[in-house]
Design a protein that fits this description.
The complex is a heterodimer of chains A (433) and B (363). Chain A is built from 16 helices and nine strands. In chain A, strand 1, helix 5 and strand 2 form a beta-alpha-beta unit. With 433 residues, chain A is of the alpha/beta class. Chain A starts with 5 loop residues before the first helix and ends with a helix. Chain A folds into two domains: 63 residues, no CATH class; 352 residues, Spore Coat Polysaccharide Biosynthesis Protein SpsA, Chain A (Alpha-Beta Complex). In chain A, strands 1, 2, 3, 4, 5, 6, 7, 8 and 9 form a nine-stranded mixed sheet that branches. Chain B has a single domain, classed as Spore Coat Polysaccharide Biosynthesis Protein SpsA, Chain A (Alpha-Beta Complex), CATH 3.90.550. Chain B has ten helices and nine strands. In chain B, strands 1, 2, 3, 4, 5, 6, 7, 8 and 9 form a nine-stranded mixed sheet that branches. In chain B, strand 1, helix 1 and strand 2 form a beta-alpha-beta unit. The chains are: A alpha/beta (433), B alpha/beta (363). The interface between A and B is large, with 61 and 63 residues. Chain A: One of its GO terms (cellular component) is Golgi apparatus. Chain A: It is found in: Golgi apparatus. Chain A: GO terms for molecular function: UDP-arabinopyranose mutase activity.
Amino acid sequence: MSPPSLLSLAIDATLLNLHNISDLSFLPEHVLSDLFLRTLKAGKLTERILKIFIATEKEEVISMIQALNIQLVMTPVLPTSKLMSQVSIDKNEVDIVIAAFHSDLTSFLEEWRPIFSGFHLIVVQDPDLKEELKIPKGFDIDVYTKLDIDKLISSSNASMFSGYACRYFGYLVSKRKYIISIDDDCSPAKDNNGDVADIVIQHITNLKTPATPIFFNTLYDPYRKGSDFVRGYPFSLRSGVPCVLSCGLWLNLADYDAPTQSLKPELRNSRYVDAVLTVPKYSMMPMSGINIAFDRETVGPAIFPALKLAKEGKVRWETMEDIWCGLVVKVVCDHLQLGVKTGIPYVWRNERGSAIDSLKKEWEGVKLMEEVVPFFQTLKLSQDAVTAEACVTEMVVAIKKEKGRSHPELANAADNMVEWVKIWKEVQSRVLV
Amino acid sequence: MSVPATVVTPPLVDELDIVIPTIRNLDFLEQWRPFFQPYHLIIVQDGDPSKTIRVPEGFDYELYNRNDINRILGPKSSCISFKDSACRCFGFLVSKKKYIFTIDDDCFVAKDPSGQEINALAQHIHNLLTPATPFFFNTLYDPYREGADFVRGYPFSLREGVTTAISHGLWLNIPDYDAPTQLVKPRERNTRYVDAVMTIPKGTLFPMCGMNLGFHRELIGPAMYFGLMGDGQPIGRYDDMWAGWCAKVICDHLGLGVKTGLPYIWHSKASNPFVNLKKEYKGIYWQEDIIPFFQNVTLPKECTTPQKCYIELSKLVKEKLGPIDPYFEKLSDAMVTWIDAWNELNPSTNGATTLKVELSKPK
């Protein structure tokens, strides 16, 4: 074997000292190419050295680099991260629906102006309210009155939209993906840092980040900034499911029923619990319509004013339509592998109405819950029900069969659900002015 | 929590034991002294038994090292893990009290947002002594807390609640993440104080962390076996997870409640994520099968005590999880050994016949 040439030894020496070299342009091309190949073979091609070779602009070396597809790493290699905490909100995707029981909405809307400004509002006037609404300027608002309801809905069904239930008309006519809805006795609340809680941002964030109903995360929402899934949380469940319903809470006057509020008239909720969490699968909960948001496109057909109490009134203590709706929606979500979240955002709920007066009315809602909850807890839907409408349709059959005879108000609710699905489909397929 | 105007006897002082596993030292107890001193401690010393672990002055305690464990349990000591905090369940076994509070030696007193020091033990006791509500979710969380109640729509027949068997506390500062998450987010700290206690609904499983835990020993003690972990075992850092899954299934079956949330402790020591990854590795894969197993377990009506439930569970573990790895067959046997040891050390007070627990479903 012949000993290495002087040139070869010189190239080897260069290779050994590459770390000290910052310019190779003086080298003849064939020497440069040889050096390049030996650099590759020795595993010494770092970013700095690659740049030095490229800087020589010698054709042979450049074509070798291209042929081997050697690239500078431009972006740092990051571990796969979950959804960023900053969720972008597209104002065109959101409708804010308010039911108006009082004609003067000025103070209410002024309070919410910083948060609602720029969003499209749908105000539905309680059909029983005779006065014209007073609405401050500067909002992108559409108002719907009894006239509009009567135009769209047959007279037999129009009663579905009276009282608190008039807001559902707003859900019906909305053309957007997300609905946020609050009662008109709510004001913006402050969080523990004294900052105003922006219910729009929080609700939409809740809806746009996954829910985790199959396994409980002890650090609550794992998608929140500063939080994550804890040890022991199965990895296959960490992508979660889409969240379609976000239930907010209330400071000051919480959503208690009349007996509780009468018994504890001084009871005010002052605890701001800084958490949002997924309601686990198969766990039922009372959905309060006071402060909610949902994905209209996915679960709109399942959010309706079906359960009307005989002595229903204009105060929250005298309604159950939202509770009923919540039970239906939860069954639908569990069946369709969708999620429901509860927790922040909070609203500040103002005093209104007398719990004791509500108590004087016959308290059928309370009695009904005893029947209704076990029914929903054991309700199973078929594999064929793959949409919210299909689920609701199957549910109607089950309600009529098991509860219809003994509880006429539940049979009525079932009929209303059927009507709602019909109206929903009709409205969605029309081109509305 | 409200503070009484005059000094009162610490609650449950004769009915609760504090169990602490340790391999290093017990210096952390100094900070807990005002809250723990009235109570009896059971120290379980892991690792080298010839090492002396100094207990700070003034505490009333019993200390067990590996030699003691072997002496007391004889051949049954095989079910108690070595070189893993799972050994803490030996403390549950030998305790004679009604309630247990267990805490790790790297957990310190946390402060609430107002700056007040949190008496974690007192909060656990409160959680255990107030009912749980597993059958229907209350959106205002714990309805028995001062300032809260059941919301509109909550069925009145369910407002009595059930007995709370487990109180699961949380941690500020170093969160209880698994190794992969620790590697990706080594600097993340839990700074969010969520001022809530809530019941984990029936039918829902959760990852139970043993760092800050209270439970009703008489009602659920036999299910709080922390498995075969650590030295000589293919898996580690899943001891509390295993106990939590078993215990939750049994609680659901027996109509008992599990709460999670307050109290917070301050977790100071971040363990080495690379070491953790080695320990957890198998667990991360196995849990994909283990979770569906627990989610689908049904226990027969005849299992009316935690011991009976646990024995039944051990059979199911052998049958359904055995095929995944021989480890589960060993674990199943260890579960049986544990119950044998439990019954031997706790003859009449936790006797299978004297315990009357309702298998209640919502009416």
